[in-house]
């Protein structure tokens, strides 16, 4: 007696009971949960956050350039040979224009000073303050870009894992069908109604499906390891993903402020600020300074040994005006002008390229959506053809070759559907990225 349809339903029910009872031991993660976890544990994002703090510290360092500076200076000199001075002989009644050398001073000289320097105007410090502020903005945008890339990578891996689960379920269904067919063929062989080679063909098909199942499981484990790595989790942690693929019509995403464009615009501002700082380096600098201290003179020979200190203090204003530095500044300015022109060209090039990619992605998305709907219908038709062919085979009006061809058609329809879903998900993901809607928290 052939295996009937009730036994098929029971087998499928048992299989799905086993499948859905196992995941209870591990948490099922949604895509949003994976992204939220990555924001906390992903090491690339942690480095990005540290870079933001680092850029803020550099900006504060530049601001500190306008703060007053206080230095404590101490200096001690012991003259083995006292310095000589030339004394005019006319001071002592001698002839004009003649001099006599003489050693003045004492061997021990001590200077202690407290020095204050207060910048009043310095174009380099002001330029550094402006540039580091823009650099801090650029670092924040680069973090957002890294965040977007992590979101994209996790979404892509998550979708790949879902597709593999979907493919695995198709293979399981095909294995059940082929197993039932094999049992029927064995019964028919016992009744001498089919050849041994027919049974072997079905057995070969079953082994191929089993091998395909193992390959899909192995690939799924690799994708899950990559997903856990991107989330910042240990690959030994056991997690499961939602196996249900939520298919919906692709949205008409509006182009928001793209992070790439913001980065290019901010980079242009950064270069422009550097150029301005270089031009302003030709301006004079002005600073206020003052010193308060004491100078000590000591003599260490009897009977007139002594060490006396005398206070000294002064204030002043220092004015520095650069006159000529060998055209170094001019060459640097010319280089920055070229960099600035290139940055504007890169911005224009990116806008043109992104507009083209968005248009292509929209067209591809429309095709992918239509293909998903069509291939889903093709699976239903292929399943109907397969069931009818199996029934005809049991009635002796179809050969085993017809059954295998129908089975292959069903599997091709399933694979085409999977490929269509992959194309849709990847295209929709790419469209989100191109239009600046990658961050799921925004949607």
Record keyword descriptors for this entry:
about 450 residues; alpha+beta; Outer membrane efflux proteins (OEP); four-stranded antiparallel β-sheet; two-stranded parallel ribbon; about 65% helix; about 15% strand; elongated; disordered N terminus
If you had to describe this structure to a student in words, what would you say it looks like?
- The protein has a single domain, classed as Outer membrane efflux proteins (OEP), CATH 1.20.1600.10.
- Helices cover 63% and strands 16% of the residues.
- The protein contains 8 helices and 8 strands.
- Helix 2 crosses helix 4 (123-190) and helix 3 packs antiparallel against helix 4.
- The model is unreliable at 1-24 (pLDDT under 50).
Within CATH, the superfamily carries the name: Outer membrane efflux proteins (OEP)
CATH topology: Outer membrane efflux proteins (OEP)
What is the terminal separation in angstroms? 57 Å
Structural class: alpha+beta
**What's the overall average pLDDT, rounded?**
85
Arrangement of strands in the largest sheet:
2-5-7-8
CATH architecture classification name: Up-down Bundle
Quick description:
Helix content is 63%, strand content 16%. It has 443 residues and is an alpha+beta fold.
Structural topology:
Blueprint: H1 5-21, E1 27-29, H2 31-41, H3 43-63, E2 69-78, E3 84-88, E4 99-103, E5 108-121, H4 123-190, H5 196-231, E6 239-241, H6 259-280, E7 285-299, E8 306-320, H7 328-394, H8 400-435
Parallel strand pairs: 1-6
Antiparallel strand pairs: 2-5, 3-4, 5-7, 7-8
Helix pairs in contact: 2-4, 3-4, 4-5, 4-6, 4-8, 6-7, 7-8
């Amino acid at each position: 007696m052939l295996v009937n349809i009730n036994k098929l339903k029971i087998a499928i029910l048992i299989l799905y009971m086993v499948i859905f009872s196992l995941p209870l031991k591990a948490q099922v993660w949604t895509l949003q949960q994976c992204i939220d976890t990555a924001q906390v544990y992903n090491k690339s994002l942690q480095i990005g956050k540290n870079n933001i703090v680092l850029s803020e510290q550099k900006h504060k360092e530049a601001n500190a350039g306008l703060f007053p500076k206080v230095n404590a200076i101490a200096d001690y000199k012991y003259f083995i040979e006292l310095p000589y001075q030339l004394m005019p002989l006319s001071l002592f009644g001698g002839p004009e224009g003649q001099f006599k050398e003489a050693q003045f001073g004492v061997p021990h000289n001590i200077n202690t000073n407290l020095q204050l320097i207060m910048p009043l105007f310095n174009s380099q410090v002001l330029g550094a303050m402006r540039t580091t502020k823009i650099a801090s903005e650029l670092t924040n945008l680069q973090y957002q870009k890294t965040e977007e890339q992590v979101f994209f990578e996790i979404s892509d891996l998550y979708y790949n894992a879902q597709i593999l689960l979907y493919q695995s379920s198709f293979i399981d269904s095909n294995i059940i069908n082929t197993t039932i067919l094999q049992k029927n063929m064995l019964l028919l062989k016992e009744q001498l109604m089919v050849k041994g080679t027919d049974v072997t063909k079905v057995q070969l098909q079953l082994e191929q499906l089993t091998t395909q199942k193992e390959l899909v499981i192995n690939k799924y484990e690799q994708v899950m390891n990559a997903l856990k790595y991107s989330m910042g989790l240990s690959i030994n942690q056991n997690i499961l993903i939602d196996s249900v693929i939520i298919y919906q019509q692709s949205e008409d995403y509006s182009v928001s402020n793209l992070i790439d464009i913001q980065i290019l615009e901010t980079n242009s501002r950064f270069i422009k600020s550097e150029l301005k700082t270089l031009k302003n380096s030709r301006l004079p600098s002005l600073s206020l300074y003052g010193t308060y201290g004491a100078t000590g003179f000591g003599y260490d020979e009897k009977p007139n040994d002594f060490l006396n200190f005398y206070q000294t203090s002064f204030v002043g204003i220092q004015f520095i005006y650069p006159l000529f530095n060998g055209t170094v500044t001019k060459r640097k300015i010319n280089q920055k002008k070229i960099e600035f022109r290139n940055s504007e060209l890169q911005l224009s090039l990116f806008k043109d390229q992104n507009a083209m990619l968005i248009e292509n992605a929209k067209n591809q998305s429309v095709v992918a959506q239509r293909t998903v709907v069509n291939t889903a219908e093709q699976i239903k038709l292929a399943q109907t053809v397969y069931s009818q062919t199996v029934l005809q085979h049991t009635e002796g009006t179809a050969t085993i070759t017809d059954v295998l061809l129908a089975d292959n058609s069903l599997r091709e329809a399933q694979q085409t559907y999977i490929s269509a879903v992959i194309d849709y998900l990847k295209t929709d993901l790419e469209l989100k990225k191109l239009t600046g809607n990658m961050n799921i928290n925004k949607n």
